[in-house]
Amino acid sequence: MNELPNCPQCSSVYTYEDGSLLVCPECAHEWSLDADKGNSEEQKVIKDSNGNVLADGDTVTVIKDLKVKGSSSVLKIGTKVKNIRLVEGDHDIDCKIDGFGAMKLKSEFVRKA
């Protein structure tokens, strides 16, 4: 038999599955098992090329010339990017760069300024 977690609201052991939700019959609390897994993933730490932890609003510097997809221009080494926003995915930095506009970058190609 599958072991389901206790209710996070009242700690009841009588939880059951209802589709993609878990339900507690004692307090009627409903929650998603995926949401519990998501909480541990939300704490994912994004680091730059030197191992420094990045946060929203940081300023970073590009450490390598990067080709801009869909354009013939290149993002030059040493370009400062202000006020970054961390997002999930392969390209984990969302930002606006003067002269280029909105762009997504990989954290492995930047260092914290």
Shape: elongated
pLDDT averaged over residues: 87
Give the % helix.
under 10%
Distance between the termini: 53 Å
Largest sheet: 3 strands, antiparallel
Q: Strand sequence of the main sheet, in spatial order?
A: 1-2-3
Q: What structural category characterises the helix and strand content?
A: mainly beta
The beta-strand count equals: 11
Give the count of helical stretches: 1
Order of helices and strands: EEEHEEEEEEEE
Family: Belongs to the YjdM family.
Domain Protein YjdM C-terminal: 46-113
InterPro entries: YjdM, YjdM_C, YjdM_N
Protein name: Alkylphosphonate utilization protein
In brief:
The protein is mainly beta and 113 residues long.
Folded structure, characterized:
- Helices cover 9% and strands 29% of the residues.
- By secondary structure, the protein is mainly beta.
- It has one helix and eleven strands.
- The mean pLDDT is 87.
Sequence-ordered SSE layout with sheet pairings:
Layout: E1 16-18, E2 21-23, E3 30-32, H1 33-42, E4 60-62, E5 66-67, E6 74-75, E7 80-81, E8 85-86, E9 93-97, E10 101-105, E11 110-112
Family: Belongs to the YjdM family.
InterPro entries: YjdM, YjdM_C, YjdM_N
Domain Protein YjdM N-terminal: 3-32
Question: Which structural traits does this protein have?
Answer:
113 residues, mainly beta, 3-stranded antiparallel beta sheet, 1 helix, Alkylphosphonate utilization protein, YjdM, YjdM_C, YjdM_N
